[in-house]
């Protein structure tokens, strides 16, 4: 068993198939298949159950996949820590950011970071918070901008807390109210976010606790597109207040009776080495948002 075979198994699971994994690994599908068979022979048990065009992890595969993620992440940590010990002046910041809030919170800081640390390369990965958490757990990124709450696998420091608000077409009748309830919104067509966005859980949990079923008309991963759909009269969306206020010319911001907190944090894997480039990013963010740092779990 070696790291090459573990990478192949992880790629098949993540990408959803052998051909997709081959594209990511820059090899052929037959090579990926041979590598998986070699790994299964090494452990003496099947790791993947082939059902049609799909491959599902067996119980042994689940164990191998979980342990493999940790092993590869630990190996990357070891290499990076040794590189810094050797006095490597150039580094890499591997940062995962979500589409919601990154423009307002983080985009203004990159120029300052590059000015302070010109030798550091910034590698940005953009996904919803759920997928970013998976990449962080796997060691594919050093820091992830994730919504709280988080599980015990991560340490974090909070960056910004904002209430979620609803946005409606400018002429919507609910715009005459000082604030709206979830019951008011339950009868309206809603435009929510694509799968992988943790903000969906905040909204869904609120409706569930109120024993209401939302009418979800459409989903998108693009904030500008959601705002355009709202302004055209298709339905009602949700945004953190600081983002919604920037859309006031084309949409109506609706304050919610119930507080739905949107708490953005910077997170990293608990108990692992955090590279100097990532530590420097944390310090810079703390300097720019000191009033928004009421606590962390570190």
> Secondary-structure element sequence?
HHHEEHEHHEHEEHEHEHEHEEH
- The total beta strand count reads 11
Strand % is 15-25%
Write the CATH homologous superfamily of the largest domain: Periplasmic binding protein-like II
Describe this structure in words.
By secondary structure, the chain is α/β, with parallel strands linked by helices. The chain has three domains: 73 residues, Winged helix-like DNA-binding domain superfamily/Winged helix DNA-binding domain (Arc Repressor Mutant, subunit A, Orthogonal Bundle); 107 residues, Periplasmic binding protein-like II (D-Maltodextrin-Binding Protein, domain 2); 103 residues, D-Maltodextrin-Binding Protein, domain 2 (3-Layer(aba) Sandwich), CATH 3.40.190. The chain is 42% helix and 23% strand. It is built from twelve helices and eleven strands. Strands 3, 4, 5, 6, 9, 10 and 11 form a seven-stranded mixed sheet that branches. Helix 1 crosses helix 3, helix 1 crosses helix 4 and helix 2 crosses helix 3. The longest helix is centred in the N-terminal third of the chain and has 27 residues. The model has no long low-confidence stretch (mean pLDDT 89). GO terms for molecular function: DNA binding; DNA-binding transcription factor activity. One of its GO terms (cellular component) is cytosol.
């Amino acid at each position: 068993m070696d790291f090459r075979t573990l990478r192949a198994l992880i790629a098949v699971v993540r990408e959803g198939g052998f051909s997709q994994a081959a594209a990511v690994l820059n090899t052929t599908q037959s090579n990926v298949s041979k590598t998986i068979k070699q790994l299964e022979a090494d452990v003496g048990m099947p790791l993947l159950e082939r059902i049609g065009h799909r491959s599902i992890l067996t119980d042994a595969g689940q164990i191998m996949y979980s342990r493999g993620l940790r092993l590869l992440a630990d190996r990357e940590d070891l290499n990076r820590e040794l590189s810094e010990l050797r006095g490597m002046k150039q580094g890499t910041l591997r940062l995962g950011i979500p589409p919601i809030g990154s423009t307002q919170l983080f985009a203004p800081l990159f120029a300052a970071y590059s000015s302070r640390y010109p030798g550091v390369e910034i590698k940005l990965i953009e996904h919803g918070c759920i997928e970013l958490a998976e990449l962080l757990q796997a060691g594919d990124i050093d820091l992830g901008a994730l919504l709280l709450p988080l599980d015990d696998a991560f340490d974090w420091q909070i960056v910004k807390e904002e209430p979620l608000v609803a946005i409606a077409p400018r002429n919507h009748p609910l715009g005459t109210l000082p604030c709206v309830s979830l019951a008011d919104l339950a009868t309206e067509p809603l435009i929510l976010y694509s799968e992988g966005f943790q903000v969906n859980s905040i909204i869904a949990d609120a409706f569930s606790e109120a024993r209401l079923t939302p009418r979800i008309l459409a989903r998108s991963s693009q904030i500008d597109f959601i705002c355009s759909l709202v302004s055209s009269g298709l339905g009602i969306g949700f945004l953190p207040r600081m983002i919604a206020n920037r859309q006031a010319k084309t949409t109506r911001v609706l304050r919610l009776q119930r507080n739905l907190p949107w708490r953005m944090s910077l997170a990293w894997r608990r108990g692992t080495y955090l590279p100097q480039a990532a530590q420097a990013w944390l310090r810079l963010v703390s300097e720019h948002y000191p009033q928004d740092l009421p606590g962390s779990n570190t």
